[in-house]
Design goal:
- The protein has helices at about 5-20, 25-40, 40-60, 65-80, 80-90, 100-110, 115-135, 140-150, 160-170, 175-180, 180-200, 215-220, 225-240, 245-265, 270-305, 305-315, 320-335, 340-355, 360-375, 385-395, 395-420, 425-430.
- By secondary structure, the protein is mainly alpha-helical.
- It has one domain (about 5-430).
- The longest helix has about 35 residues, at about 270-305.
- The protein is globular, with a radius of gyration of 22 Å.
Length: about 425
């Protein structure tokens, strides 16, 4: 068989293994290993496997992943997540759908110190959902706003999504993180607009809260989360000004939050073990996926499928934006069945050479692709945030899915804006230190 046929068979086998429930990292490594063995020899596949796994687990720059994860865990332990919601509630509760808008604001704030979408949704869901239930908010609006707000953890830096994209495509992680700032907060504002329209059409979905908050109380609430503001500017400001690498910034942010947790007297032996255990599980899962991806990418390179596809797409007489639209629709379809990291690992080895050949900016496409991955987090039947919120709120998943549908429109709007106006994503990264 020619290499392209072997590659196509490998892709089919990979999806079959995923449907059978094999973990994505093991599936990638298994197919990649036997594909390399078939095209060359097992004596070539074995060293490739060893290099991929050893290199992934020992590369210094990859330590940014556990550092960003532990930042989120320490923020939860220290009580910052509750403080963020209290601030958003005091400042935004008088708006139409105030508690839902406060949830989006709190998710944006928590995302600024936590790179995980699922962690953001789970943490703020435990805080926000009881409050909205207390004030008789429509269950679809309540669960939908938390699930959608959680996706901001994948876009607003520090974002693990950008870290994985940068690793797989060999792009600057610092520039990718900075490029997510404006689109991230633009998406948050679009979510807010969706809530305002929702409540305007159906006022009963969010009963008005007549209880006002004095201005001095609003200002006093900011003192509860001053550490959040400091750590965000410490991490992202340091990266932006060129003072720290992303790894150094992550280490500094994690150490700062560790000290904050100590000073707040919230750090117990049990909470520390829980935080470290969760960080280890999440980090190892991502590392296994990346290691398997390297093996599979080597196999794909031997089949020449990515190169042949990029040449073919570059030569066909279609607008490059039409090709981009097709790619984004593929992402939306895959998001119905795969989690965000798996989508990135599976598609980038094939799609990224095409994006470069078509003349698109790799940093800009990183923002676009992460936005589409966010959509996958709240689309049926495998949106991870849906499972999390359904468990926290103790409601059927269909209820949460129905609540997230309007927020998918917000993601589509932001993707369109970033596509039509690339400086939205590229301005800050273009002038950073």
């Amino acid at each position: 068989m020619d290499p392209q046929t072997v590659g196509l068979i490998g892709i089919v086998v990979l999806f079959c293994l995923l449907l059978l429930g094999m973990p994505i990292g093991f599936s990638l490594a298994f197919v990649g290993f036997w594909g390399i063995s078939f095209l060359t020899d097992i004596s070539v596949a074995l060293p490739a496997m060893v290099r991929s796994f050893f290199g992934t687990f020992t590369t210094y720059s990859f330590t940014v992943i556990p550092l960003f994860v532990i930042m989120g865990e320490l923020a939860t332990v220290s009580g910052l997540s509750r403080g963020i919601y209290d601030v958003a509630d005091k400042w935004l509760r008088r708006l139409p759908g105030g508690l839902a808008i406060a949830t989006i604001g709190a998710c944006s704030g928590f995302a600024a110190i936590c790179g995980s979408s699922v962690a953001t949704a789970a943490t703020l869901g435990r805080v926000a959902l009881p409050e909205m239930k207390k004030y008789n908010y429509d269950i679809h609006l309540a669960t939908g706003s938390v699930a959608a707000g959680g996706t901001l953890g994948f876009l607003i830096p520090p974002s693990i999504g950008f870290v994985v994209y940068g690793i797989l495509t060999e792009q600057s992680i610092g520039k990718l993180l900075i490029s997510g700032v404006v689109p991230g907060f633009l998406l948050a504002l679009t979510y807010v607009a969706i809530i305002v329209v929702w409540v305007g059409v159906s006022p009963a979905a969010a009963p008005k809260n007549s209880q006002g908050v004095l201005f001095r109380d609003k200002m006093a609430s900011l003192l509860k989360v001053w550490e959040l503001i400091v750590v965000f500017f410490l991490v992202m400001g340091g990266i932006y000004l060129g003072m720290f690498t992303p790894t150094e910034a992550g280490a500094l942010g994690a150490f700062f939050l560790f000290v904050v947790t100590l000073l707040r007297r919230k750090l117990t032996w049990k909470s520390l073990v829980t935080a470290m255990t969760t960080t280890t599980k999440v980090s190892v899962m991502i590392f296994m996926i990346l290691a398997g991806a390297y093996v599979f990418t080597y196999f794909m390179a031997l089949t020449m499928i990515p190169m042949d596809l990029s040449v073919w797409l570059s030569n066909i007489s279609l607008s490059r934006y039409l090709i981009l639209t097709i790619i984004l629709l593929i992402y939306l379809l895959l998001g119905c069945f795969l989690d965000a990291t798996a989508m990135m690992v599976l598609t980038l080895p094939v799609i990224f050479p095409t994006i470069v050949a078509l003349g698109f900016n790799p940093i800009w496409f990183g923002v676009i692709s992460v936005l589409m991955m966010e959509a996958g987090l709240i689309t049926p039947p495998l949106g991870l945030n849906i499972f999390v919120i359904a468990g926290v709120a103790d409601v059927p998943m269909e209820v949460v899915f129905k609540g997230t549908v309007p927020f998918l429109l917000a993601i589509a709007v932001v993707v369109t804006l970033v596509t039509v106006f690339p400086p939205i994503a590229l301005f800050l990264s273009g002038i950073m230190g």
